[in-house]
Every structure is written in C-alpha cells, then in structure tokens.
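pls design
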C-alpha cells in the first residue's frame, strides 16, 4: 500500500468531489473515509462525506456527519439546510423544520426560505 501523505489526502478529497458530481456517492465515501481518519477535524471533508451519504440514501450516517459539522460550525446555513433535507427524507418533518428555519435565518437564499415555510 502506498504511503499516506497530505498530498494524497488532497488528491482523494478532490477526487471525491468529482465522484460526487458524477453521481457516485459510494465511491466518494470510500475516498473520504481514510482522509477523515487521518484528519478527523477537517470539517470540509466531513461535509462532503455527509453529502455523499445523503446522495447514497444512507440517512443516519448523513445525519450524524451533518451534526458533527454543525457542532463545529453552528452558523453553517448549508449544513442546517442539508440536515433538514436528511431529516425530511427520514420522515422527521418537525425536526427538519427547525433546521430549515435556521438555514433561512442564517442565509435567506430562495431554496432555504421555501423549505422554511415561514408562512405556515
């Protein structure tokens, strides 16, 4: 097995981004697992892995990763929105609403505002 280096982790992270864009979330997770094992505090890698879990319909792992990101970055509007989508997909609409509203309050993008349904 080749020796790990910071460059290898960067290459794997970038390759995981490409796999996610190409709709191969499971391949992205495989590349990100060793990156996160080597750099557990890397929030960007965790956020990317959370997105990959979500796209692979692995909702519980996605939820846990988004929660780790939010523990570190409670003002991350995208992570709140994505956690809301994850909870919504898991039929936990009441929990999702809280995260949609936090996302919209932090960053009033149209998608976030629509999901927050402040008018309801």
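designed seq:
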């Amino acid at each position: 097995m080749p020796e790990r280096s910071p460059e290898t982790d960067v290459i794997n992270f970038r390759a995981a981004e490409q796999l996610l864009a190409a709709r191969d979330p499971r391949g992205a997770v495989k590349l990100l697992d060793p990156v996160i094992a080597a750099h557990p505090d890397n929030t960007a890698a965790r956020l990317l892995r959370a997105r990959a879990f979500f796209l692979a319909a692995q909702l519980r792992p996605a939820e846990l990763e988004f929660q780790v990101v939010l523990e570190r970055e409670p003002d991350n509007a995208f992570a709140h929105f994505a956690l809301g989508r994850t909870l919504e997909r898991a039929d936990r609409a009441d929990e999702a609403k809280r995260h949609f509203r936090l996302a919209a309050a932090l960053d009033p993008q149209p998608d976030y505002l629509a999901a927050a349904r402040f008018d309801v």
